[in-house]
């Protein structure tokens, strides 16, 4: 490239095309740097959003539970008992991660009705000396399912004869209960359909002794079971569950047959 003279100094002049390329190099590098920074800033915004939990810190529920029969499932011996409960619940979240939502769960049951089979026994006794006839009727709950029956006979000493008829009925005993100790474990809390385990401990007080006359009016209760919680939104859900439910006076009364029920329960739950 031929030299040129500027104010007595020899310099080399670049062609116009090469000078243009050298001027563009810093500009191109700047554009690349800006593009890289923009991509880095946009990457978090374009990432998949975090899936929120279907869970509430505090939950309140309205519940109804019913069992049409009782039997010796684990501990109880009294048969053919029905149980109806209506109440409210409160849950408080204790721990949550991707796999489980652990909650405290307590229940208050202002309506707790127990239904027992009752035997209505009518007996007629006729005496021969002196001649006299008496009739009496008694009703009492039975430990087992009531069976209708009838019969007649004479006394061994020849003093008279008797007849009897036993009919079956039911009685409903009004009570109330509370389960202040309870926990619930919901699994897969990021899904709208969540299976769960549940368990409670508490008491039940009734206006008459249950399940039979010589039992107590104050009984202890506990239950455990499984269910599924169906979230309609992040604040509202439905719970459907099945529980083993036990009632026992823990030998604080004369006898303690105990009651085992398979309890179906449904709850409407809301909170935030």
Please characterize this protein's 3D structure.
The protein is mainly beta and 272 residues long. It has three domains: 33 residues; 160 residues, Beta Barrel (Porin), CATH 2.40.160.20; 53 residues, no CATH class. An eight-stranded antiparallel barrel has the order 3-4-5-8-9-10-11-12. 25% of the residues are buried.
Keywords:
272 residues, mainly beta, Porin, two-stranded antiparallel sheet, 11% helix
The gist of it:
By secondary structure, the chain is mostly beta strands.
Q: Topology, pairings included?
A:
Layout: E1 3-6, E2 9-12, H1 16-46, E3 58-67, E4 82-96, E5 100-128, E6 131-141, E7 149-154, E8 160-187, E9 193-206, E10 218-231, E11 236-248, E12 259-271
Antiparallel strand pairs: 1-2, 3-4, 3-12, 4-5, 5-6, 5-8, 7-8, 8-9, 9-10, 10-11, 11-12
- Count of the separate structural domains: 3
Amount of helix: 10-25%
The largest sheet has its strands arranged as 3-4-5-8-9-10-11-12
How many beta-strand runs?
12
Order of helical and strand elements: EEHEEEEEEEEEE
Regions with pLDDT < 50 over 5+ consecutive residues?
none
| Contiguous helical run count | 1
The shape is: rod-shaped
The largest pleated sheet is described as: 8 strands, antiparallel, barrel
**CATH structural class of the largest domain:** Mainly Beta
The CATH architecture assignment of the largest domain turns out to be Beta Barrel
Rg, alpha carbons: 40 Å
Strand content: over 45%
N- to C-terminal distance? 80 Å
């Amino acid at each position: 490239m031929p030299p040129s003279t500027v104010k007595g100094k020899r310099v080399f002049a670049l062609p116009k095309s090469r000078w243009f390329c050298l001027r563009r190099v810093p500009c191109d590098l700047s554009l690349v740097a800006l593009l890289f920074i923009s991509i880095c800033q946009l990457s978090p915004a374009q990432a998949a959003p975090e899936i929120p939990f279907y869970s509430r810190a505090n939950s309140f529920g309205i519940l109804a539970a019913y069992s049409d029969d009782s039997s010796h499932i684990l501990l109880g011996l009294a048969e053919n008992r029905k149980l109806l409960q209506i109440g409210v619940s409160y849950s408080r979240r204790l721990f949550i991660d991707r796999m489980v939502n652990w909650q405290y769960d307590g229940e208050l049951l202002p309506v707790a009705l127990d239904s027992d089979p009752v035997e209505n026994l009518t007996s007629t006794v006729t005496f021969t000396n002196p001649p006299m006839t008496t009739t009496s009727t008694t009703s009492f709950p039975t430990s087992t399912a009531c069976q209708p029956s009838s019969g007649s006979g004479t006394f061994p000493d020849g003093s008279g004869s008797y007849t009897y008829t036993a009919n079956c009925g039911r009685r409903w005993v009004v009570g109330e209960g509370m389960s202040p100790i309870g926990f619930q474990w919901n699994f897969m809390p990021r899904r709208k359909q969540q299976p769960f385990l549940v368990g409670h401990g508490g008491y039940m007080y009734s206006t008459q002794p249950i399940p039979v006359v010589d039992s107590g009016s104050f009984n202890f209760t506990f239950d455990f079971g499984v269910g599924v919680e169906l979230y309609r939104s992040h604040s509202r859900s439905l719970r459907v569950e099945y529980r083993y439910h036990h009632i026992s006076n823990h030998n604080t009364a004369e006898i303690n047959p105990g009651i085992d029920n398979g309890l179906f329960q449904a709850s409407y739950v809301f909170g935030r």
